[in-house]
Request: fold
Amino acid sequence: HYEARRKQADGALKDAVPYKPVAPDLLYLSPENLRASLGPREDIDFTVFDAPDVGSKKVFHAGARHGRSFAEERADPNINVFDVVVKHIADERAARRRVVVAGWTEGSLDRLGQILAEHHLGNLKPVATLAEAEKLEPGQAGLAVLPLEFGFETERLVVVAEQDILGDRLIRRSKRKKRASDFIAEASSLSSGDIVVHTDHGIGRFIGLRTIEAVGAPHDCLEIHYAGDDRLFLPVENIELLSRYGSDSAEATLDKLGGGAWQSRKARLKRRLLDMAGQVI
Reply:
């Protein structure tokens, strides 16, 4: 990422906004410097496994264990998993243990709470923090937004996670966004002079990466030239709008930015595809 930015800055136009990338060793500590900075301080390792005391290394058990999974009940078509969950929570409450039902998001937790209420689980108190959960009365149950893959149990607290009940989440997490370095890497795979196709503007010629000022801040863009010396500066995060020209680029005719030729060709191709599909059917 740093090398791509440095090369980009070296090749910037004279009137471009100055951009000076900072070397990684000025931003981050090396492993050697980190160890030297920590010095004689003690380090703590967390693990989900039981571990014995070894030498001077002390092991402290947090007193927690995996909570109950309802996978067996989910797999049985003759059993309603929510009835089993409600009974499990009732048994834990009868044993004077605090119970928290955890959902990934407010929306999924609200839906899960409604389903449990329909199966006669009531008196659930919303809790926002661990401190609030610990303040629940013994035998009381609460609802909390906690992004947990699995629930857990301690001597005084039982956490039942959304995925313990459903085997999956009610709402999927949104697709992970790409990092800026991924966009730069994709853009770096293009060479100056490559013919590219923009989904909205048609055929153009890729010139290179440029840093331009937008809304008072430098922004990484791909510079693309079109017919009539028209130019498009495409933000790197929108690189998915580009594709390489599929045939001999020497015979490619550049589109005019904002012209109607590209949209007309797209419309004709769409009609041809629909006609072909109709003939196949």
Notes: The chain has a mean pLDDT of 79.
